[in-house]
## 1
Amino acid sequence: MSPETLTAPAELAVTGRSANAPAPAGRWKKPLLYLVMLVLAVPFVFPTWWMITSSLLPENEVLSYPPKLFPTHPQWSNYRAAFANYPLAHQYFNSLYIAAVVTVGTMVFASLSGYAFARIPFPGGQKLFLLILTGLLIPSEVTIIPLFKLVDRLGLTDTHWPLIVIPILGAPSVLGTFVMRQFFLTVPDELEDAGRIDGLGRFGLYFRVALPLARPALAAVAIFTFLNSWNMYLEPLVYETDKRNFTLPVALTQYTDAYGAHLWNIQLAASVTTVVPVLIVFIVAQRHFVEGLAQAGLKG
Amino acid sequence: MSTTRRRVRLASAAVTVVTLLVAALAACSSGSGSSAKNISLRMTVWSNDKSQNALFNSIAASYRQSHPEISSITFDYIPIDNYTTALTTQIAGSNPPDLAWILERDAPDFVSSGALTDLTPTLKGTSGYGYDDLAASATKLWEQNGKLFAYPFSTSPFGMFFNKDLLAKAGVSQTPEQLLAAHQWTWPNAIKIAAQVAAKTAKQGLVIRDWNYKTWIQLASVWRAWGAQAWSADEAWGAQAWSADGKTCQFDSPQMQQAMSFLHSAIFTDKALPGPGETADFFAGESALTVTQISRASLLAKHPFNWGIVPLPSGPAGSSQVIGQAGIGVMTKGQHKQQAADFLAYFTNSANSAKLAQYFPPARKSQLTTTTLAKANPLFTAQQLQSVVIDGITTGSVLPSHQNSAKLSTLVQNALDPLWTPNANVDSVLKGVCQAIDPVLKQ
Amino acid sequence: MTVTPSQTRTPPRPAAAAARGGRRQYWTTRRRDVLSGWLFVLPQTLGFLAFVLYPLAAVVYYSFHTSNLLSGVTTYSGTKNYTQLAHDPAVPSVVRATALFCVGLVVFNIALALVLALLLNQKLRGTTVFRTLFFSPVVISLVAWTITWNFLLQNNGGINSLLRVIGVHGPNWLRGHDSALISVVIVQVFKNVGLNMVLFLAALQGVPRSLLEAADIDGAGPWRRFRSVILPLISPTTLLTTIVTISGSLQVFAQIQILTEGGPNNSTNVLVYFFYQQAFGNHDFGYGSAVAVVLFLIILVLTSIQWRLRKRWVFYES
């Protein structure tokens, strides 16, 4: 990924209609297209549907044949069981607050760094940026052993510190820095010059001039940072031992009975509780999601 | 002026960040912590069973009454399929538990590594403990140079549970009990019954519990009846899966080939066992037979049907009883080794051992009588207790164990994978197993 | 406050001039920029040093040692871990699994993303709904998605039950040598293809209508238009998504652990899972570190190859 901006239309509108696609010709084309999209939508939607319906089935119907596509007697007690016998509520809170702190923290530091790399001419800046970019190539698995030992030496295993500080300042934040930098490069110089005339120093320029313009980029960073933290699996698996410190991804895998067999219906009930809120937020705000990501992608 | 403003802004930004971090710290919970007077102990377990946990907690509560410096004793559940990995990661980190359950297959690694403390002084030094009551056969695996590094709190023989209702439904003429009485309780007969139930009802035949086509060590309950071994024998015959010094693979021996061929055709030809990926829970009434440890009997309370239990069937090499063991050790890296060892002495003393006996057959010779066991295991008849439990413990041998158990376990599992297809070549697969594990055995 | 011309963003005055000025502030713009520049990037730089560079160096260091987690003893062992890796009988399967998984996933993902984007780019009503549907798995928790598919792919699970209804005997998805790999690829692709789809959609909408119309006038059919006009114009996005998808495919871990644990018989034991197995399953941090180093080198090499090749097949890069 090079520091140059790639060509992109000045105005980006990711709407359902396209400005440059020809109108479908022929009477069959439209229904055919709809049919194709409908068929393609099945593997995207069906698992979610199955997750929700199966979560309401009693244990003995969960793997039955013929398959039950719809529960006849919805067993809401599965949901109660998901919370009752496991600290799911606490783990939910863990995931939420960790993701929130990481998102806010990343937005702060990534925008600061991104701004500096884009707009402050300081010696070594370019080289440092390229160096930090290499962080994008490093999967978390490669560094987990030394990080585990480091965290352990600091006595911070089984706390949430490694799940918060490392994503904010380490490899996962590099993408955020990159996106913010690309965005800040496009801020017109005149705005900053005007700001200087008003007597703003660097931080003022950043805070008062550049940052307010950066809402779409910040939104994109917030979204993928939140999702990234929400989905973290290896790190909580390695750092946390006490169940009450787990985050949701690891917590969801713990739904086994006394001897290790999956408790499918309860496990799926727990999964549904993690999925539905985010899904609702997404459906309501999906325009922002999609536009923000598209912006970020094009500017990269 | 702008410089000052900028500095103020920078400072306030820094303060915000620090506040965020402090808030995070405040909100997150932390693991163990104790001062001299406020000691908390943690034991990792793989049991999620409510009644078992209730028993553990009641023993812990009565211990704390006489030991007020112990503020809490918690039993941490780790699912069994990940148990040893999670425990080892905890030990490697700075947050090890004070006590931990240990599987018999991992005993050599743990005992020889120095990760466990020597329990002998504490146990022998506790008055009224009765150290000599512990059966030598039970403690063998957990000792080194005469020192005991983990207490074998569960010596649980394998048996074959059967569902009388399902057998009747499938029209099985002779139950396992009857076959046993007639000295006809063999593996071929067991498979015949299983196949019949699978064919005539919608349920499965035989389930080797906890195997699931992955944990191959459970198959020792089958191959021992052929006198096969994975590597070494430490007792009479057909005891383990590798040679006497543990350095030679025995998976490609003729006995093992016969045992595995039998199992293979039972699965794919007779359809007596569920195929790979199919799950069936005997205790939910989904299969007619199951091979598992008797401590699972507590699951029967949930789904009452008429059931029975018999020892494992016999094979060409006669009948062979297999035992699974579990020990409790005190971690050397724990912060309160002595207090943990003292608690362990209490947890496993004579009186509590009798209470635990309802789930975990004890290592104490004096308690291996039908009367004692019957009091703790009201579900079993005296005859069942004698033939399955007591005889099993005295004549049976423990599941295979070896150093580098984790590595061996994965290697064997992967090498056995090709066996679980309908057209597998048993001989070549078993040779492949030996090829895979020979380097590790010789280490 | 009056502003002298020298306080705008012009090339900095040499220090001698400042000394000449005498009364001028110490904190020239240039100096302030240097300070603020470094201050702004300081947290990330420190984080990078502590959480990226140091662990990278440490991993290399550990790969030359052997450590026993239970006893806590670590000894220097030279290149023993690397020679062991070269001779490990599981490695050919791991390489095969990684390569197949990566190629299968990238090809399927990019192709599907492009197809979906092309579909959504049509002038149809209601494509927003479909766009939401296609994108929805992206926001579903990874583990929840994988658990659901695990449940569906059981031999007696939803997929096979439905197939049975129409008389088809489905394979034992997660236990078959090849079907396991296919299953894992499918689960991963449908989870994340929405992201690439959105990027392609944005790129497609940047293709000027005039160009397509000109091609149409010249007699180019839809396929020709696609190949010669659209593809080149979206090639920057294609490159971006390919790079990101390739390096992403080399990091897929949770799904493998939940669905197949690397089996059956190492057919889905991709490099990153092999790493976890060795480091945390077999408690061999030294050996695991060697695997991690190799993983990193592979990603590095692949990315630089793609980056160099970009001049070949990316058009219109400014």
Note: Chain C has two domains: 5-63, 81-313.
## 2
Amino acid sequence: MRHRHPSRLLTAAAAVCVLLVVAVAPAAAHGVTTRFDAPVPLWAVSLGAGLTVVASAALVGRLDATPHLTGRIGVLPPRPAAVGRGIARIGFFVAFVAVLLHGLVGPRVPTGNFATLFTWSVWLKGVGLVAIVVGSPWAVLSPWRTAYDAVCRLEGAEIGARPYPAWLGRWPALVGFLLLVGVAENLTRIPQRPTATAAVVAAYALVLFAGGLAFGRSWFDHADAFAVLYGLLGRVAPASVRRDDDGSVAVVRRYPWEGCTVPAADGAAAAFVVAAIYTVTFDGFAESPAYRGFYADLRAVVAGDAATGLLLYAAGLLGFLVAFRGVAALVGRIARRSQRPPATGRDARPESDGGSGAPVTALLAPTLVPIAAGYEIAHNAAYVLASAGRLPRLVGADAVDPLWWLPLPVFWGVQVVCLVGGHVVAVAAADAVVRRLAPTGRLAAAAHAPHLGLMVAYTVVSLWVISLPVAA
Amino acid sequence: MKPTTLAAVVTVTLALGVVVALGLAGGSGGAALDATWTSDTGAGIAANHHAVAVADGRVYAPISGADGTSDCALRALSAGNGTPLWSYGVPAANCTVHSVADPTVADADGDGSREVLAATTEREVTALDPGSGAVRSRFRLADYGYTKPVVADLSPAPGRETVAVDVTGTVFVFGSNGTTLWRAALDEYVWAQPTVADFDADDEPELLVAGRAGDAVLFAGDGTVEWTRTVAADDAITWGAHGQAADDGALEAVLSTVDGDVVALDGHDGSVEWRENVGGFAAVHALGDGDGDGAPEVYAAGADGTVRAFDAASGATEWETEVVAERVQMMPPPNLGDLDGDGGAELLAAGNDGSVTLIDPATGDVVSTYARDVPIFTHATLADVDGDGAAEAFVMYADGRVVRLDVAPAGGPE
């Protein structure tokens, strides 16, 4: 048996990414600065990226097992860990209160009000980026959980009138995500309105706080869109932070695909992944002239701007969900074509479980999380840093540009690396899942094919979206 | 549940509830900008960039569409509810993104009734009956028109003249009987609105034309050139405003350029009084005393999404407010007018992101915003069409739809 080193996969993928980065540069046309433009045709960049994903799948498929890495990077003793958690929890709660107050009484300029400046970028997107790096910090930061814990402390016991209904699963979180991010952030002017932002945050907090009182702490794990979103993004974190029984905090290293091989908790969590990928893509696409064209065409037959935007968003989401569901069904059909592995032969895979019992959608959905994470970084990192850099202006200081040193071509290149890298990691995760699903290596490879096709298609789509000009 | 716990729960719930209620009610008050109607004039493109005219209870909307379609037209709408009244269609062969330029409403032929005049890609200024849309007369141009015709008593000839400048810079002055009194060639494209006013305080009106090569030319009423200035070499002048800024008799012309210059010229000789740069795509349309301090201001927008108030006499920045946080291609210039009927002026800034922001011109504070998810490429048109003493704003969106915005009294929903 030959043992191939997993670093070959990473090296090959990195090499292609670097080539793609080198091949791009900014440009302008007709006196209109486009967001990014490549001196080589977009189809060539997309082809290169797609081939990278396919090559990564081929490389991973030739490995005897999906690479695994574990080990502690370091440990933080209980007391400093508790102090750190306390500071983070109180600090974020203060920021939450500031959002509500400044949103109501502060200036109505979106870039001059803490509510709009902090909520939609530093909070919503920024915490997601932190989760991608070190795992979700939301259990510590969640302001409604902080308020709930405070009243529990007053009560001297956990408050919760009844157990969380199992049938609800994570559907409330999915609904919350679609309303808060899909609709409020993408389709309305709420992110530009401080008072409306404060109202939305307060309303969401009210629902979460009330739910906690009704169902206890499990409500926050199941029904909070932030908790589910950051929990999913945290699956790709290469440095996971874990709390030990003695209160110390251990920083554990792992490959970014390892957390994505654990099945989604339920159908809602699987749909959540698809919705997250779709929504961040829609967010980028909605800024482009191409979207304006779709919008204008639909607006001609639909009464109302709000209905037009909502229809476009919903139609795209439905398309993504149907595509994923179809691919998952195909993967499941291929992988389970034969439930009995051959007794001998080089294709035999003793580790295959022929399916873990979890639905294929629940098994495959987490493998898409690296794609969402890559797109989150590519699409939002600059936005978060720019918004954070504006915060000092609220106290009379000068704004800071954290990206002043970053040339546009390099920035575009980093975006390409994040997108393609996310897909490569997703390929590795999917490989691990189909190995468990399929009884033989050949069936695993065959089952991986439709999923790979979906990933390559999305790679091309996402590169196209980030290459679109902002305005016509 | 313990009483203290219950009290804490009630307190948290009430506090959040109050924030929700206040937030939905619009926060700390202030006049609100609300859409009264949105017209059903959508075209198949998202590039309409000419402002409407408003007069006599009607809105005249210049709609451009995709090349070769029948979408291009000057459409009359009821100012009260936006219902269509009539449409003058530009032939499909002439239908382009620039088909109909900004219209104006004036008595061009001196018959005591007004006409609607607009330059089109038919290479003419078409004068239409405002009630029916019937063509009354046509004035031939050398090329299609990009700017609004000006009806004024410019030349020594009797009556008022119609002044039109086509996109390639040919100036036409038509008499009230339709004859061409004089013409002149600027030899550069003209995007900025030509203006007729007594710039040099000699009690005779002049015509100021500024071009895409950065030159400004002041014509006397008989067509002679009074002065020519290169305002911004190799830079395109795109917008302008004029008024009395320095209290020196002569008017000031304030021009803005693609490279971001805002330049104030002395109307007497065209000399530059001051120059500021806003970074790119500077846009000015309003010069007036917005803060009521007796000294007029120039209000300019830039591609950075920021609106700035400059002291009109010195160019000193009085305030600046970022109204559009997204990266945008350009920004239309702000309007100044009494939008809430309080006797003072408000500033209305249309944003390329589709937002329209009501601003306190004294401080730069944002009072209210309205938005559609469609770009805006031109300034609003202000007119009091319901006689309530407050002007309404009519905004042309890039998709060809016009939105009428009214300012609701303070305390209403945002």
Note: Chain A is about 65% helix and 5% strand.
